[in-house]
Design brief:
The chain is an alpha+beta fold. The protein is built from 10 helices and 9 strands. Helix 2 packs across helix 4 and helix 5 packs antiparallel against helix 6.
Length: about 475
């Protein structure tokens, strides 16, 4: 299913899948079948950390810091890295937070280990810039950029009071300077009283001493004022830094607010344009449908009918081909099964024939052995008979034929040969009785006519054949 996706003002679409070699980033795109689209946010996120580090003197301390980090939007390659490595995870998840925290803590600890505590305390800006640069180099491989980094006041680790001592030392120096100033004023007043009392006596000495003390007082006052001014300048610098940070944050907040307002306005305009486009699309579709209904109804119906018929024919042909293929497969399987069964039956039949041949061979072998033994016995018997008959073969033959019933079998066979015969014997006389000796040819003709009826009757009785019609019909039961 094709879907049209649009990303928000602070979002991107990450598209992978079909026709996309690696990953494609876009603000809006058609999502085709076989593609996957993930939407990810590019707004920066604030990460607050308290990095525990150690200086070159092996003194531990805590470096509180706030980093505003987000994806780099001005570099397509960096944005691709962010989409691959970071976007699958929530920006506020422990995975991303631990990744950023590990980079920041590692670089901060390395830099702190190369600096003394005084350098760290006095060079907070330099430490911040160095950490910023080092961390940014590491974050480049993830497509991230540091929008803002703020390092707060350094804090002692539990059980350590180094920064507290430094603060107390600064306060003590300021108090000492103020106390020295106050004592100088009191000494001046006392010296002024003594000078007035002893004006007459030590006027010259007092003036010299007053000048000397005045110079020393002015020197001390200048030193105290210088220290106070330095302290005031440092505090003013801290206040200016704080004001600058506040101004930057206000500017960022104002920029983000304006950007959000612009994005919201643009989003409304984009949505309005999309809705207008949808309305225009619906109107165009309605006009197209109307034109189709007015001009192309019949062609569309014919096309749909032909398409359905073609689909039906194709479906029927496909089903017929599938049925034929299934039938042929089943026939092939049946033929293969029949061939296997036939082969098995023939194997079994061959085995049975081989067993029968072996049995028959064994039987014939045993039969031959029996015949050989019987022939040997007959040979011994005939030899003994021949010896008993004095070598007379004719007497031996007659004895064997009588003993074996040969003459009885011959008589029985001859009797069976004529058994059931019913011969018909016809006797006729052709001696010419009743004719005179002078009959001549007439006598011969009469003899022939007397001979024909018995002959025909005999043929009919023996063969069942009837005489032809021109020879006449023989009367039944005619005695010749």
């Amino acid at each position: 299913m094709v879907v049209y996706r649009v990303a928000g003002a602070s979002e991107y679409l990450a598209i992978t899948g079909w026709k996309v070699d690696d990953i494609k980033l876009a603000k809006k795109a058609w999502i085709l079948p076989g593609q996957k689209c993930n939407k990810f946010d590019i707004c920066p996120v604030n990460y607050t950390f308290e990095v525990q580090a150690m200086s070159a003197e092996k003194l531990p301390f805590i470096l509180p810091a706030v980093f505003t980090i987000g994806p780099r939007t001005d570099d397509d390659e960096a944005l691709l890295k962010y989409a691959k490595l970071i976007s699958p995870h929530d920006k506020l998840s422990n995975h991303v937070k631990e990744l950023v925290q590990g980079v920041i803590e590692g670089e901060a600890r390395v830099l702190a280990a190369s600096m003394t505590m005084d350098e760290i305390f006095k060079g907070t800006k330099e430490l911040k810039q160095a950490v910023f640069n080092k961390v940014q180099l590491e974050l480049n491989q993830f497509g991230l950029i540091i929008y803002n980094a703020n390092v707060k006041q350094l804090v002692d680790v539990g059980g350590q009071e180094y920064f507290s001592f430094l603060g107390q030392k600064t306060q003590q120096e300021a108090a000492n300077k103020a106390k020295a100033r106050m004592m100088g004023e009191m000494g001046a007043k006392e010296r002024e009283g003594h000078t007035l009392q002893n004006a007459a006596k030590v006027d010259a000495d007092t003036k010299i001493f007053a000048k000397k003390r005045q110079g020393e007082t002015m020197k001390q006052e200048v030193e105290v004022m210088t220290g106070v001014k330095i302290f005031e300048n440092e505090r003013a610098a801290d206040v200016a830094q704080a004001n600058s940070n506040l101004a930057m944050k206000k500017a960022n907040w104002e920029r983000e607010s304006k950007l959000a307002a612009v994005e919201a306005e643009k989003a409304v305009a984009i949505r309005d344009a999309e809705l207008q486009m949808e309305v225009e699309k619906k109107n165009a579709e309605r006009q197209i449908e109307k034109l189709k209904g007015e001009l192309l109804t019949k062609a569309t119906v014919d096309y749909n009918i032909k398409a359905k018929e073609a689909e039906r024919d194709l479906y029927m042909q496909k089903k017929a081909a599938e049925a034929e293929l299934y039938t042929k497969q089943k026939e092939a399987e049946a033929r293969r099964a029949a061939a296997d069964a036939d082969l098995y039956a023939k194997q079994k039949e061959a085995e049975a024939r081989r067993a029968a041949i072996e049995v028959e061979f064994y039987a014939k072998q045993k039969q031959a052995e029996g015949k050989i033994a019987l022939a040997n016995a007959d040979k011994t018997y005939i030899s003994s008979l021949l010896d008993a008959l004095g070598g007379n073969y004719t007497a031996l033959r007659d004895y064997l034929m009588i003993n074996n019933g040969v003459y009885q079998d011959i008589a029985r066979t001859n009797a069976d040969g004529i058994k059931g015969l019913q011969p018909k014997i016809s006797v006729w006389n052709t001696n010419g009785e009743g004719m005179g000796s002078d009959g001549g040819a007439i006598k011969e003709m009469a003899g022939v006519y007397r001979m024909l009826p018995p002959l025909i009757t005999t043929v009919q009785d023996q063969t069942g054949m009837q005489p032809p019609a021109w020879m006449g019909v023989m009367a039944k039961n005619t005695d010749m």
